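Render this sequence as a predicted structure.
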Amino acid sequence: MPELKNTSFKLLDWYKSIGIDICVQNSPRKRFKSIKVNNKENIYPDKINNLKDLEKQIYKFNGSELKTTATKLVFGDGNPNSKIMLIGEAPGYEEDKSGFPFVGAAGKKLDQMINAIGLSRKKNVYITNIVPWRPPNNRTPSENEILIFLPYVEKHISIINPDIIILLGNVAAKAILKNNEGITKIHGNWFNYKNPYLKKIINIICIFHPSFLLRSPSQKKHAWDDLKKVEKKINELKLKINEKN
């Protein structure tokens, strides 16, 4: 028996020396309980008309496995009466712990960006994400995950009823605009957005995600140019951003 033990350790050392550091089973192991969606449930928010009920509905919704791996639902933050809405991608590690969007390093960067044109999440903007649960390891949400939560995002937009939406990054831009062009091509351009629950047309602009700017500081000039376009649009629409709604 001791000889077998020594041999096993030597074999493991050899595996390690050639770069093998994981052991794969012969059959896959199910680490998470599969989620069943009851089609009879009211899984989509057509009849909801306030943020409190929408948040409850999203929390109860079991149609995505992201809920099983995340810690907290990240619903939204800011002034719900604001006429300016920001939409990001998905929560990260810090957001998953706090339950609020954009509270980590990217959140601090976002605050600096919007503060520069007189905006503040405490006073005159409202912030949410396309996906409300953190994807494992901060990976990009899959196309299926985005499609699952898109009806909730559309309802979220209709309840806030903004005049301007700022889409932060590629995922948000593609999800809302249904545009396959990358953020490097469409940032800084204005689009007309028609929400399925609203009659009016909403002004939308796409800008670089704050986390991208932290990794690529050379793009800050472009981000500043885009923010100045937001400031100009606010003035054109005569939005009162310095007053409490």
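Summary. The beta strands are 77-78, 84-88, 126-129, 164-168, 190-194, 201-207. The first strand starts at residue 77 and ends at 78.
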